[in-house]
Design goal:
Leucine-rich repeat, LRR (right-handed beta-alpha superhelix); 12 helices; LRR_FXL15/At3g58940/PEG3-like; F-box-like_dom_sf; six-stranded parallel β-sheet; elongated; 371 residues; LRR_dom_sf; twelve-stranded parallel β-sheet; alpha/beta
Length: 371
């Protein structure tokens, strides 16, 4: 029986074998092939794969949900050609949900810009379906991204880099479904940023701010009642206030220099991480009963504020990590690391909390190894 199958298969011509394999590919459900294309992601590879057969060509147009364009994949093309490839590829799709357009910049003075018309055209074509957008490119001429982005009302995840945001109008600009917002190297005023967070994003849960081009001498006051996770990096401000964040659970501050920092808690805060930052004057007020851990690395902080306003008030504290930390106090009193550790442990013992881990004066690498 097996010999007969082997003989029959041997008699099949190479053309018929190839045709049989093609039929198996064509028999795959379009939805499955579409998910495969989404996993590929990079538009150049998706277009090449779509040339396999007519059905895959149709899948690329009708069932592909995610495409990404990275300038590194098109180094041999001029920027204008790269723009044409982006628009022609996107305009052949229907129902695109995730779009990424990234220009990779090096340290050279000569840096390429994408035309603002490109972004307008892409959003006009995808505004009914787009849920995730990652746009990282310098654009010319400068355009108001708020006006353009508000047409995509299904957006849930938005990452913007090297763009300008201005002219925000609370009455017209809304992101009703936005859950995650990341602004990197974005030029924006403190007032526009505050208004966007307070009035335009009612469902926002995660906020990332990195190297904003913002007036450092002014006050930055951010509020959002639904925000749960907040990461801020490389921002220097005279005054930074986080208030009306009833749901904030995790706060991470990295490479920041802030003269006055104020956080108003509503009982949800669980973790605070400060990395390579100077927080000279810290004021933490409100309910901190659920606070669990504080990690501080290579930073200058006012320990008395964190100790009295966070650690001492919480009955759920589980971990304290302090590595290469300079303690700043208004009375210029030096704090001895050994005494700090023993006094902190004494406090935890008095609280009958034996599950607290206290690590002080060790390197961050050793902390990571222990975890």
């Amino acid at each position: 029986m097996n010999h007969n199958k082997q003989w029959s298969s041997a008699l099949v011509s190479p053309y018929e074998q190839a045709r049989e394999k093609e039929n198996k590919i064509e028999n795959l459900p379009m939805e499955i092939v579409g998910k495969i294309f989404d996993q590929i992601g990079e538009a150049r590879h998706v277009v090449v794969a779509s040339a396999t057969c007519k059905m895959w060509r149709k899948v690329w147009k009708d069932y592909t949900c995610a495409l990404s364009f990275n300038s590194n994949m098109y180094r041999d093309f001029h920027t204008s050609t790269f723009e044409v490839i982006i628009t022609q590829t996107i305009f052949q799709t229907r129902g695109l949900k995730s779009l990424s357009i990234v220009m990779e910049y090096d340290h050279d003075d000569h840096q390429e810009y994408l035309s603002s018309e490109l972004m307008v055209a892409c959003l006009m074509h995808t505004h009914d379906s787009l849920r995730q957008l990652h746009y990282s490119a310098k654009t010319t001429p400068n355009m108001n991204f708020i006006n353009t982005l508000c047409s995509a009302q299904k957006l849930e995840d938005l990452v913007l880099s090297f763009v300008f945001i201005f002219g925000f109008n609370p009455s017209h600009h809304k992101f009703h479904n936005l859950k995650s917002l990341s602004l990197n190297y974005v030029t924006i005023s403190p007032l526009n940023l505050s208004l966007i967070l307070l009035t335009a994003c009612p469902k926002l849960e995660t906020l990332v701010l990195v190297s904003l081009h913002i007036d450092k001498k002014t006050e930055l006051d951010l509020s959002n009642p639904s925000l749960k996770n907040f990461f801020v990096e490389d921002i220097n401000m005279a005054k930074f206030i986080i208030s009306k964040v009833d749901c904030l659970e995790n706060l991470h501050i990295k490479n920041c220099a802030i003269e006055f920092f104020k956080l108003v808690c509503k009982g949800a805060l669980k973790t605070l991480e400060i990395d390579s930052s100077d927080l000279i004057n810290i004021n933490i007020i409100g309910n901190t009963n659920n606070f669990e851990s504080v990690d501080v690395y290579n930073s200058t902080i006012m320990w008395s504020s964190i100790y009295s306003m966070l650690i001492k008030k919480s009955s759920k504290i589980k971990r304290i990590k302090l590595c290469y930390v300079d303690f700043y106090e208004e009375d210029d009193e030096d704090i001895d690391m050994e005494n700090l550790s023993s006094s902190t442990m004494a406090l935890f013992m008095s609280m009958n909390n034996n599950n607290v881990m206290v690590l002080i004066g060790k390197s961050k690498e050793e902390f990571d190894l222990e975890n």
